[in-house]
Every structure is written in structure tokens, then in C-alpha cells.
């Protein structure tokens, strides 16, 4: 099976947040990109965009290129970015309310479409291959877990999550609240799938981020400011991963796909028992020159 991989589509970065997305408008941005990466399944590892109606319209356009689409949800899929959106998803009887209500609405939209599915604590089987996953979130693994208050202060200062995820991102919430609240979704699927999908990286290793952000050891040896600048990123990148060793060592997956970093990354993780897991990130992110030629889609075979 051929699987096309991308993450962090952020559709509203590419299109106006209001109005419909016509076939012509969508294809003007993405036609060449998707035609260059034929596959049986397209996996989107979270951060579809900030507006549910726009997200589902774009996913339906993608169905012209892929028979099956699987998505999980990222931190931006929980964002409520305007006062009117906060009001739309306010708490009412029988509703989850806030950011959780927005994600529930997105799930309902996906459930109404043929050929589009989500993984968020569940497993989808396609032609004998099992796909499972969840958002993932972050747990501060790159920082000192014994200093929870300091990590939380950095989160409040650095991450937009602290301002735009309701009710988690305000009123005294902690940076790892959603990790602990939703960890059960990871627990439910990691031993049930061939392909694991999460928005946040399971590799809580600083060297991973040095690799993704092209740390040049030769330049570091010549310029101490270069190393200092990279080291300063560690506080920020702490909110780009969780400690996934338990899942990687004991899971059934042969591949793990993630997003969130807006970088491309591929690494073979070798378990203690010798089994190898391919870990892949292929993010689109914000348009650089507003052209589809700035990006590519990675295709793997499982």
C-alpha cells in the first residue's frame, strides 16, 4: 500500500477564512502537488486549519486525488481564534463546549463523508493495514519535569495554545492538561495498529530537533552564538513532543507519522528487541511564496 504523508495543512493560511473554496481555487494552489504524489491513502497528521467548514471543503476536494483520506487533529484544530467562534462553541446543555465542541463538530463533518476518516483513539483498517492514532499533545519531556511551574510559565509565554484553546488554555490551566486528559487515546491504539498517526512527535530527544532544524556542528565549533541560538529553541520545542518511548518499545506499529514541527523528518527508531520503526514527518505549513511548488508530499510503502 502506498501512503502519501503531509501534516499542518493550515488551509486558512492558503485561502481566505471566509467564503467557499472552489475547485479552481483549490487546484490553483495544490493540483500539481497532489498529482505528483499518487497513493492509495493520504494521511494528514493534524492542524487542518482554524475553520471547520473550510477544512471539510478542502478535504472533499482532496478526494478527487485520493480514494481514502485519514486525518488526526492538531493543536490548531482546537483553536478558537475569534470572539464569534468562541461564542459559537460556548457551553450549552448536552454539549462539550469550547475547543472540544469544535473538534466534535469536525469529527461529525468527517463522519458524513465517504472515503474520509479520522483517527483519535480509534483504529481504521484499509486493505488489511490498520491505522491508529491521536493528537498526542506534549508533556514537557525536553525540560525538567520536576519544575512543573516553570515549564508552565514558559508555555504561557511561548505558545498560542495557552491563549486560544478553551477552556484548557486559560483560567489557570497547565501545559500538560490535555496530554493527561487524552493520553488514554494513545493507550487504546498503539498495540492495535500497523501505522500510528499523531500530531505531536513521540521522540522526546533534543538531538531530533537539532536534526530537523539543521544544526551544523562545524559551524557550532566556530561560532558559540550559533550553539546558543539553537539551545534557546529547546524551551520552545519542549511543546513539540511527548515521551513516546513506552509506545515505541511496546507498540505494534511499523511506521509512525507525525506533524506539528513544520519540518520534514525521517528516522529509523530501533527498539531494544531489534525491531525497527520508521518515524516520518512531512509538513506543509504556511505558504512561503503562496505556490504549491514550495512543498512536496512524501510517499511511503507499507
Biggest sheet strand order reads: 5-6-7-8-10-9
| C-alpha termini separation | 5 Å
Q: Count of helical segments?
A: 12
Number of strands: 11
3D architecture notes:
By secondary structure, this protein is of the alpha/beta class. Helix content is 36%, strand content 18%. The chain has twelve helices and eleven strands. It has a six-stranded mixed beta sheet with strand order 5-6-7-8-10-9, with helices on one face. Strands 4-3-2-1-11 form a five-stranded mixed beta sheet. α3 (52-62) links the parallel β2 (41-45) and β3. α3 (52-62) runs parallel beside α5 (98-111). It is globular, with a radius of gyration of 19 Å. The termini are close together.
Topology record:
Elements lengths: L1 E5 L4 H4 L8 H13 L5 E5 L6 H11 L5 E5 L10 H6 L9 H14 L4 E3 L3 E5 L2 E6 L13 H11 L2 H4 L12 H13 L5 E4 L7 H7 L4 H6 L1 H14 L7 H6 L4 E4 L5 E7 L5 E7 L15 E4 L1
Parallel strand pairs: 1-2, 2-3, 3-4, 6-7, 7-8, 8-10
Antiparallel strand pairs: 1-11, 5-6, 9-10
